[in-house]
Specification:
mainly alpha
Amino acid sequence: MAGSIHIKIDYDKAVLLKKDTLLVEKNLLEIVQHTRTYNKLRKEEFILKSLVKKRMLEIFELVKEIQPMLPTEELRRARLMDKKENHEILIKTTEKKAKKPLISEKKRNNIESEIEEIQAKLARLG
């Protein structure tokens, strides 16, 4: 045992240190879980924003093509109708996309099971 150093720690202090270590580990796992969720949401946000931008450009191009053919009074009425319809379509598509799971169930279950194990160890320690 050359080079080994031993330190005597009271039992109560050892239990307290073990609890603190488990709590830190649990908090780190929860941070990892939240970070993964955040990253997934950011990716989805970027995809949706780029899709909206692309669709808006397509709409502007179509409007430019159609605008010379439309009389002004009918154009005003069409704009009002389009705003209402586009709003309804946007609401429907966002509802469909909101139902997708954020992170894979396997990763979530793995982290959750580790958190539950740590909580069980904490409960056993007191």
